[in-house]
Amino acid sequence: MKLSAAADLPWNPMQIALARSLVDLRTVLLASDPALSRLRMGARVTLTLMAVGLALIGLHRLIPLPIAAYSVMVITAMQGTLVVRDATSRARAVTRLYSGLTGFAAVAVATLFSPWSIVSDAVFVLFVFGAVYARKYGARGNAIGMFAFMCYFAGAYLHPSIADLASIALTIMLSGIIAHGIRNYVLPERREQDFRHTIVAIGQRLATQSALLKAGAARGWTAASRREVLRQQERIGDAILTAEGFLPPIPSDAHREAAVRELTIALFDLHLASETA
User: Is the pTM of this model over 0.70?
Assistant: First the structure.
């Protein structure tokens, strides 16, 4: 009885304004991020960096760390959140292992060549080339290349000593564990659910575009109506690109491979159709 009576009480103006603000905020977020995947990505990066910061504070009380170790841990934590994009948890763990080893090797190479600036700069150019070329090998190659590039840059800039490498190895390992835990257990990916939400949003945006085109054809086109159609077309294209990002890499299974290829082609055709409508 008490709960039903409380539910029947009228809302005060402040509560109504707050509710409207929350609805407006959700509408704005969904307009640019249909599945809220970008919001979760930002929250994942922020939470990872906060956890890394707390880990560094606790670790520093036990083991005084060099400045390079702080920098490398933050860099690898952020890169581990952004560029490790394998489809399964096991594949992401393998990528983190390879990336961490490559990143540590890059810091070690930068440390060895730090007395010779010209040689260090030349090696840095090679790392840049390698990071770009590694994209040829998919998401894992891209992650390994980015780890190598960023870690070499940190090492070349901060000039850690040989004695600092053990601390740097420890921080790379901790950053990988933290990033992996948050990515898989605290704020996990929901690729299938996000894909479905994005497809629904694409359908809604196509319906809106169709209504705008019909209204323009019936009433005549104005500068404002043309801008609105172009804006809606951009929103459709953005949603389609987001949906394509949720598709997994081409799997080895023939049936799944055919399904992924068909979805990719269908989304591409839909994108072209929306632009030529």
Answer: yes
